[in-house]
Structures are given as structure tokens and as C-alpha cells.
Amino acid sequence: MIEVIQQMIEKGMGIKRPHLNLESKLGETDIGLDSQEIVELTALLEKRFNIKLPFPCFTKLSSIGDVIESVQKNQTTKSSKPSFEGKIEAAIEMDCSAAEAYRAIYEMDQWPEKLPHVKRIDTLYNDGVYQEFLMDVLSDTGMIQVRSIRRCLPNEEITFFQPKPPKFLKHHCGGWSFQKRDAGCYVKTWHQWNLESQKAQELFPMQESMSTGARVAKLLLSHAELALSTWKSVLEGALCKS
Amino acid sequence: MQILKETVIKAPVKKVYAAYADIQGWKQVLPDVIGVQVYYDDGLHQEFDMTVQRGDHQETVHSIRFCYPLSSIEIFQTQPPPLFKSMSGVWKFIPRDDDVLVQATRKFEIKNDAKFDVSILENFLEKNLSSFKEWVERCA
Fold first, then answer.
1. Cα–Cα dist B97/B92, whole Å
2. How does pLDDT run across A144-163, given as a tens digit for each residue?
3. Domains in chain A and their CATH numbers?
4. pTM of this prediction?
5. Which residue, among B125, B120, B138, has the nearest Cα to B7 in the 3D structure?
6. For position A242, what pLDDT does the model report?
7. Choosing a second label site near A76 at 20 to 30 A (CA), which of A61, A104, A185, B137?
8. Overall domain count for chain B
9. Residues of chain A that touch chain B, judged by Cβ-Cβ distance less than 8 Å
């Protein structure tokens, strides 16, 4: 990892330094970074290793060994248990089998015929388990296009992520689960996300006692509940017709 | 078609899993990986391009991974390597007393008109496992 950090300082920050070792200190006496450059290095580490380091993480007296230890500790924590800033879930009972509910949500090509707000689906990949598709959706703000990637476990679960989430989210993923319950089924959906803080605060500023995070959670919960009630109507309506 | 290869790595499962999950770190583990462009990574889901040196030419594949921390990593390629119609697979991490059994499977279809020696893919998979074994055991 020393080589990666050396490259980061030399190529990423444009600062030429002699060969680093574990004892090299970030500050003036060794590598010569000032406080701003240490913040810049921290940001590069966060981007390179996709981690979030505490602030302030390093000082001029921190060594390369300290930096590596912090990154590795954070990587292990992150990899063991990815954390999301927000999570909501909603569930509903439907008067149809779990297999029917699964199939309706699995067959995205059929959505434009069933869901009024879905105008077009462009399937980019579908091997029966993994799917990638583009979806044109009529939203409150006009037509938007969403790209979704999913993993489908027949009749049990569909998980998804949105590689390019809305501007106010940094990450967005979630899923659906399907369980038999009495004569019908129990369908649960959930969303998890991390905020793109600045954009989220612009679009959803704190309002009365509700924080930006709480407003986003409320919005996504309402979307989840609407999706469930719409699918319930579609599936139970379809059953009545048959 | 499907192939399965496995190895045993003497390290905690946290370290074994973390090495495989850190897609940017692959460049350090595998000398033939010359570039990784990550488009999305939330810790559970990843989308990226990986460029590898194959003899005198380079190949770029577009991959998507679903990660199950400390347990498994599933991969599929919407842009598989040349000669392949489809490519997907999984690494399973099975902790034992003082080591981890890593099982790697690949499911693939070769293009109709392509001639491909499956032992080449088996060698790549074996190299992948042995390189990670060496890397993780050195860093553990």
C-alpha cells in the first residue's frame, strides 16, 4: 500500500518525494505536506479505497504506517458490514401467490402495460438471474430515466441497485421479498441509501423539525408504499379478471 | 459450461473477503490487471471496467458484482471477454478452524463460431486464486 500512497502524493497531488517508508511523517519534517494537503490526501484515500475516514483523521505527525492502519481498519469495517445512512421498509399482504407477485416484478418488460407511470423499458441484459435495464418513468418533475441492475432469486427475493441514483443520493439500493402467507403472500420492499450531502441539503433543506435525511426517508417511504399498493391493485385486479 | 477451482488461504475471513471485495486493490494483487474504472460501489454492489493484459493485447470487461460480506461475491459481465457470449461466477468464502476455503466457479457460454480452449480459463481462475492466496497470506 506504500506504493499506492506514494503514487497518490506524486501523481494525484503533484508533490515529488523520496521513497516513503512506514515511519515517514506527513508533515514538514519528512514528506512536507501542509494541513490543506493532508486534507487533500485524505480525500484521495477516501476516493481510492471507497471509504469514509473520520475528520480530522491525520496530522502532520501522523506516519505512513498510521495512514495504512486507518485505511485498513476502515476497509475491514466497511467490507464486513457496509453501512448506509438511511433505510426504510414497507410491506403489504396480497391476495395472490408469492410466485405470481415475484413474476410480475421480475418481468420488467411487461411493466408499461401494467404500471401507468412506467412509459418504456429497455432491457440491456437479462440472463434469468441478473438483469440490467433502463426505465422511462413519468415523475412529478417530468419524464426521468432510471438504470437499474437486479439479482433475482426465483419466487423469493429480488435485490437491486441504481448505479446512477438521483442527484441527492450517492448510493441507492434495495429489494423485494416474497413470502407465502395463508392463501396469499406477504411482499416486503426496502431501500437503503447514502446521501449526496450538498445536493440533498439544497433539495431537501431542514424544514421545521425535519432533517434533510428524514425528508429523504419520508420521500422514499412514500415511493415504496405507492409501489406496493400499485402492485397489489394490479395483481388482485388481474386475479379478478382471470 | 461451468468450472470450479478452490484454494485454502491461511488468514481470517475478514481479510480474505476484504482483499477480493476491494476492486481497486486488484491491480496490486494481479500483475496482468492494468486498469480498473469504478462507476459504482456502495459496499454491496459494484459496477466497474477492468482492463487486463493478455499477451500482446489488452482486454476490457464490464463487470457487476453483488457482494455478501464475509460470505460470497457474485459477478456477471455485461461485456464479457472476446469469444464469450456470457460470463458469470461466484467466489465463496468458507471459514474453517484457522483458514478459509475459497471456491471460485465460472459459468459461461462460448460464441457459436469461436474456438476456445477451456483450460485457458481454468488457468486464469487458478492464477486468480493463487495470487490472492499469496497476497493475503503475505499481508495477514
1. 16
2. 999 999 999 999 999 999 99
3. 2-80 (1.10.1200.10), 86-241 (3.30.530.20)
4. 0.78
5. B125
6. 40
7. A61
8. 1
9. 1, 3-4, 48-50, 75-76, 78-84, 124-125, 127, 129-130, 132, 149, 151, 159, 161, 163-164, 171-173, 192, 194
